[in-house]
Amino acid sequence: MTARPVKRSLTLQGHRTSVSLEDEFWQAFREVARARGMALNALAAEIDAGRGPETGLASAIRVFILRHYRGGNAAR
Length: 76
Prior knowledge:
The chain has a two-stranded antiparallel sheet. It has one domain (22-76). The chain has helices at residues 23-36, 40-50, 57-70, and strands at residues 6-12, 15-21. The radius of gyration is 12 Å and the shape is globular. It has 76 residues and is α+β, with helices and mostly antiparallel strands. The termini are far apart. 13% of the residues are buried.
């Protein structure tokens, strides 16, 4: 298990941004995108569009993944 976040680049609505997540979250994020038949950038854009201005993108992705695996409403 990697405790330190790993920074990777994503493209959201044509703009490059970087997100830092732990390896386990990156793996789960890819799994969720694959299960939904979506590209990782498309899923990130969907999460980005649904988050509030006070929530960072990395946090929104972590919560999305947690909700997905708990069987909750991952779209919120």
